[in-house]
Design goal:
- The protein has 278 residues and is of the alpha/beta class.
- The protein has 2 domains: 203 residues, Vaccinia Virus protein VP39 (Rossmann fold); 56 residues.
- Helices cover 27% and strands 37% of the residues.
- The protein contains 8 helices and 12 strands.
- A hairpin with a 7-residue loop joins strand 10 and strand 11.
- Helix 3 crosses helix 4 and helix 7 crosses helix 8.
């Protein structure tokens, strides 16, 4: 068999968006957490949501599916990804859901109407803004796009190992692949970090650099200060609870439950929600 006739590998045939959704996203959990944060703080159920940097709109679709009264907007600059999400996540959810989801191709800072109960920026995507003025400007636009009792919900990662070059592997059962998260480089002078996602397959093939990221590694206090400067009235940090692993007392694992925190011990790796109230 010649090179031209060689059978395609699993990596050649795989869909990177499907892989990403299994590896990185858990929209049902996000909907649960958003609803809990908002209800606990505001005393009522949130109905409208805008997903900034929405990618395939997976969360936006799940939000609309979770309640027949709910509407969502997803905004992302990547047309190919938005189109994929419209086809695979929104249209397949049925006509009732699809009419309550709007996916918009564009800059997240340009969409501030209609105002919503919750705007979210997940998977650390807002870290593309690497100066204080740029990030504050995004927060100001997010503030303007919220109703009077609205909230901006962000996530952020950190911990001692986040400053190191490393690779973390996770098995993806549904797609018979291994998800690899790589910290390619980190510059401690300006906190510039480059990361990448790869996928390995059981036939030995690899989808190299399926997604790449160039960010500033922001600290929680910097984000909090900029949110307050942008006009938000209060900023809360929700920290994940950890417990000892049953098989290894020295290993702590996340429970998936979050509590509001003002002081914690640093860990090798952590992920938090940042909830900013208008």
């Amino acid at each position: 068999m010649t090179q031209a006739q060689k059978s395609p590998t699993m990596a050649d045939l795989a869909d990177r968006h499907t892989l990403y959704q299994e590896a990185v996203q858990d929209p049902e959990t996000e909907v649960y957490n958003f609803t809990k944060f908002y209800t606990d703080i505001r005393g009522k159920k949130p109905l409208s949501m805008k997903e900034d940097y929405c990618g395939t709109g997976y969360l936006a679709a799940e939000w609309a599916k979770s309640d027949p009264e709910r509407t969502s907007i997803g905004v992302d600059y990547d047309a190919e990804t938005i189109d994929w999400g419209q086809t695979h996540n929104v249209d397949t959810a049925g006509a009732d859901v699809a009419r309550r989801v709007s996916l918009i191709k564009g800059d997240v800072r340009d969409t501030i109407e209609p105002q919503v109960d919750i705007t979210c920026g997940l998977n650390f995507s807002y870290c593309i803004f690497e100066t204080r003025d740029e990030l504050r400007g995004y927060f100001e636009k997010a503030h303007a796009g919220l109703k009077d009792d609205g909230m901006l919900i962000l996530d952020m990662f950190g911990g001692t190992e986040c400053y190191a070059e490393l690779e973390e592997e996770t098995e993806l059962e549904a797609n018979d692949a291994t998800y690899i998260w790589e910290h390619v480089s980190f510059n401690p002078i300006n906190n510039h970090v480059e990361c990448a996602i790869h996928f390995d397959f059981s036939d030995g093939s690899r989808m190299e650099n399926a997604f790449t990221y160039v960010w500033r590694f922001w600290s929680l206090i910097e984000i909090k200060e900029l949110l307050l400067e942008a006009g938000f009235s209060k900023v809360r940090i929700f920290w994940e609870e950890f417990e000892e692993d049953d098989d290894d007392e020295e290993f702590m694992e996340g429970t998936g439950e979050y509590f509001e925190a003002t002081e914690v011990e640093n860990q090798e790796s952590w992920m938090v929600y940042i909830v900013a109230e208008k």
